[in-house]
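[User] I wish I could look at a protein chain and see how it folds. I have put the entry right below:
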Amino acid sequence: MQQDSYAQRYQAEDYYWGTKPSAICQQVLQLLPPDQTVTLLDIGCGEGRNAVYFAHRGYGVTAFDLSAAGVARQNALPRRQAYQSRSLKQM
């Protein structure tokens, strides 16, 4: 099952996908600037690098992943990057 393989990958010390946001995040910033009331849905958020990036910039974010290990890493990422993300949620 693919979910199990990601759980194993997410057990590593480093973040599997890294902590920098994906390239498309810059395009979202241009199309939907955070000065609007915008809530983003990150389906398949993995370890949360994009969700945390957007929450840090003022967006409301709801992030979801089937991997409990990925979501646990997502919840640790704001603390690891020395800022808090009150709008980051898990389902």
Notes: Confidence is low (pLDDT under 50) at residues 82-91. The helical segments are 2-9, 24-31, 49-56, 68-80.
